[in-house]
């Protein structure tokens, strides 16, 4: 009997021991995966996998095109030059249209005082008569994301000689020239392509077919002149004798808006001089109809002489000292436009 009790007690102890061992084993096996996960070393390749998860916009290089056009940079893009933004007004209408023949009273008063005409005529009637002879401008000056309008504004400085800029100038979408500019015999340096030619009656020249005649009207008589020069030829005088007829496509004539004159005078040349020069107005005009602007042939030549590239007299710099324009201030504005990345000024 006593032996039987010992056997039962031994069996009980063995059972308790078995249960303790089993419980310990189960707990250990359940904790082992967690311990292995927490202590697992990070593979060396983990950082590279993390980098690939960075959004592409953060990993990409700087943009290779502008915002408002498809050029690498666009004139109308904001946020790149506070100095430029304070002066550039994209709402300005660079040219007159048949639909908008009225000129604000203060602008009209300023413009009519630039070079007074003897006749007292109603401005709107003169403009309406003009658009009976010339066509409404086809230009769309609004920037578009899908296009890049590259323009070369070519001045008449003697610094163009031996520049070999001709092919570069011709590569632009639009090539703007002015006044008595000629290309014959100078193609290597100035190119031979012209899409826009700025004139006023006293600087008028005949233009090839397909070229936009861009009239700078410094007085009311100039609007009458372009109407006459493309039709009857009756006007032969302004303050001096002028061409009574000019060869140009009537459907490609553009007349710069007098309000645009005042805008250029107030915002860009800041009333230095009586009004901006043709060269200055051409650049400001280009800023409004082009997405990218390159400027050639402005300033003195490499010897400091001011003259036109087709002139033999290298000391004929009268156009710089007319007393009407402030050449020094305009030069500083052009240099600033280049520094701010709004134009590309080609200098020698």
From TrEMBL:
**Which residues pair up as cystines?**
151-290
Any one cellular component term from GO for this entry? extracellular region
Q: Where in the cell is it found?
A: Golgi apparatus, Golgi stack membrane; Secreted
Its Gene Ontology molecular function terms? beta-D-galactosyl-(1->3)-N-acetyl-beta-D-galactosaminide alpha-2,3- sialyltransferase; beta-galactoside (CMP) alpha-2,3-sialyltransferase activity
Keywords attached to this Swiss-Prot or TrEMBL record, sorted alphabetically, are: Disulfide bond, Glycoprotein, Glycosyltransferase, Golgi apparatus, Lipid metabolism, Membrane, Secreted, Signal-anchor, Transferase, Transmembrane, Transmembrane helix
Bilayer disposition of the protein: Single-pass type II membrane protein
**EC code:** 2.4.3.2, 2.4.3.4
Q: In which pathway does it act?
A: Protein modification; protein glycosylation; Glycolipid biosynthesis
Annotated positions binding substrate: 115, 156, 179, 239, 275, 279, 299, 308, 325
GO terms in the biological process aspect are:
lipid metabolic process; sialylation
Tell me, in one coarse class, where this protein mainly resides: Golgi
For this protein, what reaction is catalysed? a ganglioside GM1 (d18:1(4E)) + CMP-N-acetyl-beta-neuraminate = a ganglioside GD1a (d18:1(4E)) + CMP + H(+); a globoside GalGb4Cer + CMP-N-acetyl-beta-neuraminate = a globoside MSGG + CMP + H(+); a beta-D-galactosyl-(1->3)-N-acetyl-alpha-D-galactosaminyl derivative + CMP-N-acetyl-beta-neuraminate = an N-acetyl-alpha-neuraminyl-(2->3)-beta-D-galactosyl-(1->3)-N-acetyl-alpha-D-galactosaminyl derivative + CMP + H(+); ganglioside GM1 (d18:1(4E)/18:0) + CMP-N-acetyl-beta-neuraminate = ganglioside GD1a (18:1(4E)/18:0) + CMP + H(+)
Q: Where is the signal peptide?
A: none
Q: What class of enzyme is it?
A: transferase
CDD domains from the xrefs? GT29_ST3GAL1_2
Annotated transmembrane regions: none
Tell me how this protein assembles: Homodimer; disulfide-linked. Homodimer formation occurs in the endoplasmic reticulum.
Family indicated by similarity? Belongs to the glycosyltransferase 29 family.
Protein name as catalogued: CMP-N-acetylneuraminate-beta-galactosamide-alpha-2,3-sialyltransferase 2
Q: What is the lineage of its organism?
A: Eukaryota, Metazoa, Chordata, Craniata, Vertebrata
């Amino acid at each position: 009997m006593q032996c039987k009790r010992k056997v039962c007690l031994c069996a009980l102890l063995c059972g308790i021991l078995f249960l303790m061992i089993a419980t310990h084993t189960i707990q250990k096996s359940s904790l082992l995966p967690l311990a292995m996960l927490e202590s697992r070393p990070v593979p060396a390749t983990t950082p590279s996998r993390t980098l690939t998860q960075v959004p592409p916009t953060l990993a990409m290089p700087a943009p290779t095109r502008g915002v408002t056009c498809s050029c690498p940079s666009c004139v109308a893009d904001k946020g790149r030059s506070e100095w430029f933004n304070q002066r550039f007004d994209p709402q300005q209408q660079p040219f007159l249209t048949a639909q908008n023949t009225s000129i604000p009273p203060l602008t009209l008063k300023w413009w009519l005082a630039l070079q007074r005409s003897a006749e007292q005529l109603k401005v709107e009637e003169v403009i309406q008569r003009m658009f009976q002879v010339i066509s409404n401008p086809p230009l769309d000056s609004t920037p578009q994301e899908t296009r890049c309008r590259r323009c070369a504004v070519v001045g008449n400085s003697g610094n163009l000689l031996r520049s070999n800029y001709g092919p570069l100038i011709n590569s632009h979408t639009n090539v703007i020239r002015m006044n008595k500019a000629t290309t014959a015999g100078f193609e290597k340096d100035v190119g031979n392509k012209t899409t826009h030619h700025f004139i006023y009656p006293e600087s008028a020249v005949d233009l090839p077919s397909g070229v936009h005649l861009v009239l700078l009207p410094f007085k009311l008589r100039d609007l009458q002149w372009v109407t006459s020069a493309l039709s009857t030829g009756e006007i032969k005088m302004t303050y001096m004798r002028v061409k009574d007829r000019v060869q140009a496509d009537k459907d490609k004539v553009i007349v710069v808006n007098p309000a645009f004159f005042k805008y250029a005078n107030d915002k860009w040349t800041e009333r230095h001089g009586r009004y901006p020069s043709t060269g200055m107005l051409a650049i400001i005009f280009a800023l409004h109809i082009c997405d990218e602007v390159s400027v050639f042939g402005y300033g003195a030549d490499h010897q400091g002489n001011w003259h036109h590239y087709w002139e033999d007299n290298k000391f004929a710099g009268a156009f710089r000292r007319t007393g009407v324009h402030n050449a020094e201030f305009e030069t500083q504005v052009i240099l600033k436009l280049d520094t701010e990345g709004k134009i590309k000024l080609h200098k020698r």
